[in-house]
Every structure is written in structure tokens, then in C-alpha cells.
From TrEMBL:
Assigned protein family: Belongs to the cytidine and deoxycytidylate deaminase family.
EC number(s) stated in the UniProt entry for this protein: 3.5.4.5
Residues bound to Zn(2+): C53, C86, C89
InterPro entries registered for this protein in UniProt: APOBEC/CMP_deaminase_Zn-bd, CMP_dCMP_dom, Cyt/Deoxycyt_deaminase, Cyt_deam_tetra, Cytidine_deaminase-like
Catalytic reaction(s) noted: cytidine + H2O + H(+) = uridine + NH4(+); 2'-deoxycytidine + H2O + H(+) = 2'-deoxyuridine + NH4(+)
Species name: Clostridium kluyveri (strain ATCC 8527 / DSM 555 / NBRC 12016 / NCIMB 10680 / K1)
Cofactor field: Zn(2+)
Name listed for the protein in its UniProt record: Cytidine deaminase
GO CC entries: cytosol
Amino acid sequence: MDYKKLISKAVDAKKLAYAPYSKFRVGAAVLTGDGNIYTGCNIENVSYGATNCAERTAVFKAVSEGHRDLRAIAIAGSNKEYTYPCGICRQVISEFAREDMEIIIVKNENEYMVKKLEEILPYAFIKKHLENREKVYD
Ligand code: THU
């Protein structure tokens, strides 16, 4: 698949990052199953733990607009290296990922890597692991 548009939206989304503490801007763009794109940036907080990553901002925007079927997400950080999604974001992406979901790790508009979610989050904890559980509360 050609991810040029998704990548350019992720790079653009960085501009809106609110990152006064880390000074590290991140942008993300998620492609839904029906072809919509939702963007997100990191939004920091003076209480550092309340910070929201760019990927989660984009995923939450898509889901809150009724799109629970995610086909791809592009992520662009602001150093010269590739910025991979953090562990919490990988888990959040996994909740709404279609089986073959692709993660596009962007260095710049010409240099990027396409990974399967499975590659960066092997042995994920998913819904089916809650099935047939022991009854603890009767
Ligand atoms: N950050 C993201 O937005 N996405 C990532 O995948 C890695 C980290 C943000 C969180 C924080 O605002 C800043 O980058 C530094 O950790």
C-alpha cells in the first residue's frame, strides 16, 4: 500500500504537539478500515504522567468518531532517528487493530519502515485471554 499521504499527515501533525517539558514533538496519523485518516500529536502535562502520546491521541480520535477498525498508523518523531511507539501505545493500538495492521515508523517523508503490529508487539495480551477465566467473584 502507498502510505505517502498518511506519512505526510503524521509529519504535519507534529506541528501541533504540546511538548514544553520534553521538547520532543511526535505526530501520528491513523488510517481506518473505511479509508478515513485521523491525526494526533503528543499532549504533555505539568503532572508528567498525565501526558498523552501522539499515537493514542490519533487512535482515540478515530474510535471516538466510531472507527474501531484500524488498518495502519504512521508515527513521526522529531530526532534524526526512527521513533517507535511506546509500550502503552502498542497495547492501545492492538485493541483496535485489524489482523494485518501495519505500523509505519517514519524518519522523514522519504525514509520509513513498515512493520506489522505482530512484529513490534509479539505475544500480545488480547481480548480472547479474558475468555474462560476462573470465577473469582460469585
Ligand atoms: N511520545 C509519543 O508521543 N509517542 C511515542 O511513541 C513516544 C513518546 C511522547 C511522549 C512525550 O510527550 C514525549 O514523546 C517524550 O517522551
